[in-house]
Amino acid sequence: MQALKNIKIGVFISLVNILIQGVSVIVQNLIANNLGIVKFGSFGILQSDFTIFSALADFGMATLILAYFGKRATQGRLFINVLQLRLFMTAITALAMVIFAFTVRRGSAVFEAELVLVLGLLFQHSYFDWYFICGNFWKKLLISKVLHTLSYTTIMGIALWCFKVDSLPAIALSMVIAALPAFGFGVGQAFTLKIFSIGVHTFQFFKLMFKSSCPYAISSIASFAYLPAGLYTVAHFATPEFLGAYSFSHKLVILASGLMVHFISSSLITLHQTDSRILSLRDQVVFTLFIIGATTPFWLLPQYTLRIIFFAAPWTSEALDTSCFCLRILACSLILQATRMGMISTLLKEKRTWLYGAMITVGGIVNIAVCIGGARILKADYIPALTLTGDLCLSLFLLIYFIKNHRLR
């Protein structure tokens, strides 16, 4: 059964990422312990901002480079052009983040930390991942990841555990410093002064890449109008205490959503082994039931789940109750993601990226409108449910498309 193959491959890929994710969870605990519940909510806003600008800096280019060029992207003039493109996008996005900080975040709790994380955009540890993957330099990629894990653990541990750092700018600076060893390793492997050789061909390459990457970029950026939209809505309309409690459940569901991406990859792998254009409803149901089973602790034991994952958080009974309430609702997003996993991977395999980009954009717009409109009328307790609007719309869009084209059996 194809669903079982997807599950096996997806579980394997997910396990490969457990090391870095595990370290990240421990660091999040130390941050929560140092900041407290309320300030941890502000940290969630800061991280979400940085993630969005990181997606803007990528603009779907990493996927496009891998899909279009493969190993050729690490050789000759093409390598120079790709490196120039990546540097150009990073510089422009860093400037945009500075403008955003001064216009939107000025006067807020995250303003100074936002400016510090602009350096994080310039010195991302994953900046040269495209080079290692395209060139099949797996040992170098592994060295880069291990180096980052070690530096991240050491530097964040010293800052948070030894020096008890409890301000957002200082934590942001520690994160930037922690990324430097892996970034430096990438520079040593994939940097050349020839990037300063700019000609007409460079701008022609930029134009081609921007045009081709649009559907990938739209799909990636529009996805931030789903779960993160709820976080921003809570930050604007709810109390700081509610935001802090909400942030814990939000982070847990975002972590699980990241693992869901690996199952889309596993589905693509199995889909390339068959020419079938018809999607099996049985496979969809089996995978959805698997995700429901895997997320059972979120529904039945949210209190224990939150206490175990965020073991160092300074929980209060009120904050824990609020976070449990939010977790039960937000976990529904994972079920909706499971229902559409096979349909998304099928569209990506068939390169219908513009169609998928349009669907996810409309769903994102609806989600933002419902979240903001609903939050103006209803109490903060309803915001987690409003956040699910985009997931529901996208799942319905995909289902209607596949039913209309007779592609379900």
Task: Provide structural commentary.
Helix 5 runs parallel beside helix 8. Helix content is 80%, strand content 0%. The model has no long low-confidence stretch (mean pLDDT 86). The protein is an all-alpha fold. It is built from 19 helices and no strands. The protein is globular.
- Estimated share of beta-strand residues: under 5%
Poorly predicted sequence stretches spanning 5 or more consecutive residues? none
Query: Order of helices and strands, N to C?
Result: HHHHHHHHHHHHHHHHHHH
Largest sheet: none
Return the domain count: 2
Structural class: mainly alpha
Tally the helices. Answer: 19
Q: Give the CA-based shape.
A: globular
Amount of helix: over 70%
Question: Nearest-angstrom radius of gyration?
Answer: 21 Å
Mean pLDDT: 86
First-last Cα distance = 14 Å
Extended strand count: 0
Structure summary:
The protein has helices at residues 2-16, 18-58, 61-68, 76-103, 111-122, 129-134, 138-162, 168-190, 200-222, 227-237, 240-271, 281-294, 296-300, 302-309, 317-330, 332-349, 353-377, 383-386, 389-404. The protein is an all-alpha fold.
List keywords for this structure.
409 residues, globular, 19 helices, mainly alpha, 80% helix
Summarize the SSE layout with pairings:
Blueprint: H1 2-16, H2 18-58, H3 61-68, H4 76-103, H5 111-122, H6 129-134, H7 138-162, H8 168-190, H9 200-222, H10 227-237, H11 240-271, H12 281-294, H13 296-300, H14 302-309, H15 317-330, H16 332-349, H17 353-377, H18 383-386, H19 389-404
Helix pairs in contact: 1-11, 1-12, 2-4, 2-5, 2-7, 2-10, 2-11, 4-5, 5-8, 7-8, 9-17, 10-11, 10-17, 11-15, 11-16, 12-16, 16-19, 17-19
